[in-house]
Write a structure and sequence with these properties.
The protein has 10 helices and 18 strands. By secondary structure, the protein is of the alpha/beta class. A hairpin with a 2-residue loop joins strand 10 and strand 11. Bound molecules: flavin-adenine dinucleotide. The site of flavin-adenine dinucleotide (FAD) has 30 residues, from helix 1, strand 2, strand 3 and strand 16.
Length: 388
């Protein structure tokens, strides 16, 4: 069986790309999507922010017009307009994508996939079947991408456990998302609580760390219990759902071109922002660029690289988080103390102006960044590279 496009992995990146393809002039092109899982459970939630309507607004679980930052000394909130911070449940996204794609020449195969680059296209192996396609888009995450690379690059894990809870009395403000509550020990790495209220009595609370290794499960649970009782004064609540996740945070390069006809997408294609772990909005932007490349050049590789200045900032911030994690809290506090949240979010989305970059980067003391820059220069010296 021959297809125009083969997508390996039907998660966020694979399905987003397919949705982008069928939304425009490529709608009648044939697409094969090979995904090993049934994707019938809510295996994650995605949060992102936007100042324009997105195709997922209708299925968003919640949108927050205000953002809150708390570090102990600082307790700040902002109206985000024209931005809004919003959450999508994984299962709602998978169901929406399946329903939308069913109206187009899209074939789903549930199997473990492999792909081979051929002179005229690709061969995809899935189950016992063989398929061919002109182009392949690969979002299969390999275990080696989650391992530290013994090189000059930084590697941390963003790991978290979230509890969705229901309380008997109203305690939450469903208009305000708390992106950082840093009132917790920073001994194990940059550590914070992330609070997403859906109603006065219903919220998702996540205990999140940026550090090299994950914790034993009970440590996340103890921290969540402690925050609910000591910080929010809540002893009685019902646990509705649990979420645990690990997101790789690294400044190592991710090659996009995996063969003459194969493009890496999603996490595999380096779409996770190294300093924050956010990827969903970047995946949407990447999908639009891939489709534009196909339409304009007939091939998918004419996509712009990430702006070098953001790669540089990501690398410095990640280096400070990795080597001097105790400085994470004061750095974040000084950035939020001197900048409105909207500006910080645009910066984190790689969409700030140079002037805004300077306003953000000059907020914290320069020392940690200069030290990170020094380590970066030393690590890039030719003799260092030969030693590793
Ligand atoms: C729990 C969690 C929460 C997150 N929350 C956010 C958030 O709030 N905001 C944000 O911006 N980012 C978030 N991220 C980061 C990022 O957006 C997600 O990881 C996102 O799902 C990445 O998309 P992806 O397509 O690269 O990977 P996935 O969505 O994981 O898709 C990859 C797919 O490939 C399939 N697959 C793998 N190997 C094979 C194979 N051999 N054959 C066939 N199929 C295969 C997998 O089953 C999977 O479905 C989160 C990540 C996690 C883990």
């Amino acid at each position: 069986m021959k297809y125009d496009y083969a997508i390996l992995g039907g998660g966020a990146a694979g399905l987003s790309l397919a949705l982008e393809m069928v939304a425009g002039p490529l709608a009648d092109h044939s697409i094969l999507i090979v995904e090993k899982d049934a994707k019938k459970t809510n295996d994650r939630t995605w949060c992102y922010w936007s100042d324009v309507p997105t195709r997922f607004d209708g299925i968003a679980r919640h949108a927050w017009p205000r953002l809150h930052f708390q570090s102990g000394q600082l307790d700040l909130s902002w109206e985000l307009a024209p931005l809004r911070y919003q959450m999508l449940r994984g299962l709602d996204f998978y169901e929406y994508a399946r329903a939308e794609l069913a109206r187009h020449p899209v074939t789903f195969v549930q199997a473990v996939a492999d792909v081979h680059d051929e002179p005229e296209g690709v061969t995809v192996l899935a189950g016992n079947q063989q398929y061919t396609a002109q182009w392949a888009f690969d979002s299969r995450i390999r275990p080696e991408d989650s391992l530290p690379v013994p090189s000059r690059y930084n590697f941390l894990k963003q790991h978290f456990t979230g509890w969705e809870i229901e309380t008997s009395r109203p305690v939450f403000n469903p208009d305000t998302v708390t992106m950082f509550d840093l009132r917790t020990s920073q001994r194990g790495g940059v550590t914070f609580f992330y609070l997403l209220p859906f109603s006065p009595t219903n919220a998702l609370l996540e205990y999140t760390l940026f550090s090299p290794e994950v914790l034993p499960p009970e440590e996340y649970e103890d921290a969540l219990r402690g925050y609910l009782s000591s910080t929010l004064g809540l002893e009685e609540y019902r646990l509705l759902e649990r979420e645990h996740g690990v997101i790789p945070m690294t400044d190592r390069p991710f090659p996009r071109r995996l063969g003459r006809h194969i493009l890496a997408i999603g996490t595999r294609g380096g779409r996770v922002k190294p300093s924050t772990g956010y990827a969903f909005a970047r995946i949407q932007r990447d999908s639009r660029r891939i489709v534009a490349s196909l339409l304009q050049t007939g091939q998918p590789f004419a996509i712009p690289p990430d702006p070098p200045r953001y790669r540089f900032y990501d690398s410095l911030v990640l280096d400070v988080f990795a080597k001097e994690p105790q400085l994470g809290r004061p750095i974040l506090a000084s950035i939020f103390a001197r900048n409105p949240a909207g500006r910080v979010l645009r910066f984190l989305d790689d969409r700030s102006t140079l002037r805004e970059d300077l306003q953000i980067l000059r907020a914290p003391e320069a020392g940690p960044f200069l030290r990170a820059l020094g380590r970066r220069i030393v690590n890039q010296l030719p003799f260092r590279n030969r030693m590793r």
